[in-house]
Design a protein that fits this description.
heterodimer; A: mainly alpha; Helix Hairpins; 83% helix; flat; B: mainly alpha; Four Helix Bundle (Hemerythrin (Met), subunit A); 8 helices
Chain lengths: 90, 203
């Protein structure tokens, strides 16, 4: 029951992050939203593992967390470089 | 009593799976539409990353953990970076289309309708007497570890039973990667070449 409530809360947080990703005026809002959705995915996989009685999903969610981090860093590096050279558009 | 409780738990789990599937599919559809809708290409690339993450969670709910992992690594990681590189070479805004693209829309809707129609003829999800479960899968499950020495069945099928198939796939991906590298490299070299003579002229 507790895990179900957690899953519901995660879904609600996902909805909020999706709204920010669709509406977000600047690029940084969207990067934050992507990172947030990645974190929600990690947590959702972990919670799903406990709901279905297979906690070995935890390893997979840890790997997801690593990928999420690397992708965010790559995007941020690109945005920083693009801002400093030619791109004036926000 | 115990069996009854276990059956109840299994039914509850199936209901949770169903609701999660519905919610995630709604999210996936919304992100797909948003990715097409947004004019800012950088935002579209970000939204496509979210799409991949949602698809990955959908695969996990469907118990395809290996597929989910590939989707998260390739879709959310590598593809986003490649998209960003492409945007850096072209431009951040999508040009407004001159004509309304009705014909492509009709073709994709027709294809989607055909695919949905085709799912009606498929066996139920996870049914034990589906053709896919009866053909070679029992053999792989029974003899896979003894014949290949790999404990993971998916790996034994990919790397041993379908080794040539995987080799072809790797060749295709390698060629595509080289093609992308050549495209990106030549574009940036051209930009550098066009930048340096201008500087020389002014000096």
């Amino acid at each position: 029951m507790m895990f179900l409530a957690a899953a519901g809360a995660l879904i609600a947080a996902m909805v909020l992050a999706l709204a920010r990703a669709f509406a977000g005026p600047t690029v940084y809002d969207r990067i934050l939203a992507v990172n947030h959705i990645g974190t929600q995915t990690v947590l959702l996989i972990a919670v799903m593992g406990f709901i279905t009685g297979r906690p070995d999903f935890l390893d997979i969610s840890l790997l997801y967390a690593l990928i999420n981090f690397v992708a965010t860093i790559a995007v941020l590096r690109y945005v920083k470089r693009g801002r400093s050279t030619a791109d004036k558009e926000s | 009593m115990d069996a009854e409780a276990r059956q109840g738990a299994r039914q509850g789990r199936r209901a949770i799976d169903l609701y999660l599937n519905i919610i995630l599919l709604v999210f996936v559809a919304a992100t797909g539409i948003a990715a097409v809708w947004l004019r800012n290409l950088l935002a579209s690339a970000m939204v496509l990353g979210i799409y991949s993450l949602l698809m990955a969670s959908l695969w996990v709910v469907l118990d395809a953990v290996d597929v989910a992992f590939t989707e998260a690594a390739v879709g959310a990681g590598v593809t986003t970076v490649l998209m960003l590189l492409a945007i850096a070479l072209t431009g951040r805004r999508e040009k407004r289309a001159r004509s309304r693209p009705w014909a492509p829309l009709a073709v994709s809707l027709a294809t989607a309708g055909l695919l949905v129609y085709a799912t009606l003829g498929m066996p139920a999800f996870g049914s034990a007497d589906a053709p896919a479960q009866l053909h070679v899968a029992p053999y792989y499950l029974r003899h896979g570890e003894a014949e290949t020495g790999v404990p993971n069945v998916v790996t034994s099928v990919l790397a041993s039973y379908r080794g040539f198939d995987t080799l072809g796939e790797v060749t295709v991906i390698f060629t595509a990667g080289i093609g992308v590298l050549v495209l990106l490299g030549s574009a940036s070299r051209r930009r550098r070449n066009s930048a340096t003579p201008a500087k020389g002229d002014s000096a």
